[in-house]
Design brief:
Three copies of one chain form a homotrimer. Chain A is of the alpha/beta class. In chain A, 39% of the residues lie in helices and 14% in strands. In chain A, the strands form two sheets. In chain A, strands 7-6-5-8-9 form a five-stranded parallel sheet. The model of chain A has no long low-confidence stretch (mean pLDDT 93). At the A-C interface, helix 2 and helix 12 of A face strand 2 and helix 3 of C.
Chain lengths: 319, 319, 319
């Protein structure tokens, strides 16, 4: 079966998911991202790699933060960026997703950054572009339903590599609502590909997928056991809509059991790093002392996120 | 009487309507648009013609699609583009339309792209600029009420010329809700100016203007009769708000009588082209087989639309 | 106590308020703004002073007009501008203001233009940047609660200097809802700093602060007395929410007593200028004959506003 993310030369054609992305490409993205972190520290944070290209931020689901990171990345590469908040637009007028895509392609789009509430929407777009022979147009998944958020996963891997150098000797723990998290799905896929020997997922039974052990990860329903000797602790955001629903008693009780406090963090290795995809719910999944403490690398994650997105965009534009 | 669209040298000053636009200027826009279609296929889709100019997309009525086409056109000409969704802005604060315009002029606007729910609003603005001696500022009508949508009409003419080469030997048919359509009004004006010998409008009595024959067009209340031997079939979008109102029984019944199916299209000339301004209601005014078929030129219309808007903007900036 | 607006060399670090801004810096901004008014009249309205810088328009309170002026100023300085309407964004997701700021800093922001409904929010951000050692990032207050709107005050001072040359011989009158006006607060601070010998505030008792005389200004509850022999008449906008509340009988009665008509204006000096921060309520605080008359300098205010904002941004970027 054709890998929809690769072109016929095996190069990156679209970034849809970290699941199924070959190690060689995953590693290449991280390598290419490194010099882009330096661009961001220059006086003139601008490179001409996407000059004259039209990048469409196609957000069928609102997300100012994610849209902003892609907008910055594209503008620093000198692209023309068009923001489309599609929920308030043509779909209301009865147009199909693929008709919208066809129209934007006809306006000579070069790249689509797609956020969609339905899992698989970016795949549908990529398949359609392939079927209609428009292989010069690229798709980046900026989060689809519960499925994937690959640039988040990539920036997480970049962050781990930056602070831990190697993957082959790590214990990495993912804590929280794995069941509903596209971020977690992307993280687990990448950690597996990069050869992390021990990955643990930690959380209440109601928020862990039933089949998660099939992914080769260890499941812990005990926070202390899960954190013990960890090198990397990746906290997940607890979505507001879960907090008072059937799955959880209350944010306070969640924090008591699953919130990351200095005491719990002390069970991990002394030099363990703490990550969070943001935006944080302080006092729900993470204590402020930890969030602002010396082991947190949450803001470097954001910085690396711009560099990783610039890397993906410039790779796609070059292929 | 002064033609508000022309300056004292007879050059294009504003683009407000295709009704009253001289053939020489209409033809010049189409000629100038041609090389811009090639720009869009380059690696670097960028020309410096509007560099340092400030283009304001003044949308008093929301339309992401139309705004996007103008935003792309202006950015490819290197303009600074400012998007103003005015419905959510100063008008709510009690400011008059002309006070808003005066303010934006004072910010050294060079060009206004205006979409407004009231017919005539762009004229009001153009008259005001004239009366106050600000002849270096240009207005493009991006759709006003039921009145006009001249860039849509221009891209339609560009599309017809591209596929049919000449206008003087054509039978052109406009099908649907002509009564409420600013697109149709612009199309009919341009087709007349360009010398199309036979223009037909086809649709239910409730959706055709009563005085349409005065425009020199032939009225058909029978779809088969209307389509017979046509060279160009221009479908109109059926607005959602008409579908369940007093004017029409239901979308299904509309489709049965007025929807363009392969069977009905077979009545036209074998090489007839099918056009639609988008967004399409598949299964209402047009069948998917036709929309995706070999005779449809709906996506080239979109591509030509960018080129035509670049042509209009660069002409205005040069005059 | 440290002046949060100045860096350790006494240069402008943030623009938060005109209250406490030294005369030398206030004068420098006005001087630097002058050549920027000429840029706006060029064919190519573009300077490379902020090229490669990322300017974030952080609007926690919606204001299309103010956002537009900053967006234009930044784009004419070649910055990359990112518009964030934060009310519809992360704050809804429970993120704190300072977490939002930390995140944007991690994306290598160079400048924040902040509008916030709470007085003091820009100070909070500036303090946080100082406390965390991020002194290369600058904050411009674009209006906070009832507290300050310093760029509006600066453009008003620029306008007065432009038309009156000197400040030391002027009678300046501020008319209207001083109590709720951040604009008035910024004006009064600047007029005092610039050495205007007589400043009067005029308005109904319910709309003047009780302690206003402490600011060294003269309070008048009589419009005729207030306007007599004035050189500059600065009208304030009457917020819609005041018009039918407990503080005022009705817009019509307000206009009768406090609205600026030609008759009342005749009490001022013959060459007095009339200013308004916009958007105007014609027939409420100002008569159309005055607003459109020869003494009004309301549109020059807008033009100078772009230049003043370019001056502030380029000064900050240079320090």
């Amino acid at each position: 079966m054709r890998n929809p993310q690769l072109n016929k030369n095996g190069e990156l054609q679209h970034l849809l998911s970290l699941d199924g992305l070959p190690l060689s490409i995953l590693g290449a993205i991280l390598d290419i991202a490194a010099p882009f972190t330096e661009v961001a520290e220059r006086e003139v944070k601008k490179l001409p790699l996407l000059r004259g290209k039209s990048v469409f931020n196609l957000f069928f689901e609102n997300s100012t933060r994610t849209r902003t990171t892609f907008e910055i990345a594209a503008k620093r590469l000198s692209a023309d960026v068009i923001n489309l908040n599609v929920s308030t637009s043509s779909t209301k007028k009865g147009e199909t997703l693929l008709d919208t895509i066809d129209n934007l392609c006809a306006m000579q789009a070069d790249m689509f950054v797609v956020r969609h509430e339905s899992s698989g929407a970016p795949y549908l777009i990529a398949d359609h572009l392939h079927a209609t022979g428009r292989n010069h147009i690229h798709v980046i998944n900026a989060g689809d339903g519960r499925h994937a958020h690959p640039t988040q996963g990539l920036l997480d891997m970049y962050t781990i590599r930056h602070f831990k150098k190697e993957f082959h000797n790590l214990i990495v723990v993912v804590v929280g609502d794995v069941l509903h998290s596209r971020v977690a799905r992307s993280q687990l896929a990448a950690l597996t590909t990069l050869g992390v020997p021990e990955v643990r997922v930690v959380g209440p039974r109601t928020l862990l997928p039933t089949d998660v052990e099939r992914l080769g990860v260890r499941v812990c329903h005990d926070m202390n056991e899960g954190l013990r000797d960890a090198d990397v602790v990746m906290m997940l955001r607890l979505q507001n809509e879960r907090m008072n629903g059937a799955l959880l008693p209350s944010p306070q009780e969640y924090f008591k059991v699953w919130g990351l406090t200095p005491e719990k963090l002390a069970l991990a290795k002394p030099n363990a790093i703490v990550m969070h995809p943001g935006p944080m719910n302080r006092g729900v999944e993470i204590d402020s002392t930890v969030a602002d403490g010396g082991q947190a690398v949450i803001l470097p994650q954001v910085t690396f996120g711009i560099a990783v997105r610039m890397a993906v965009m410039s790779m796609l534009a070059g292929n």
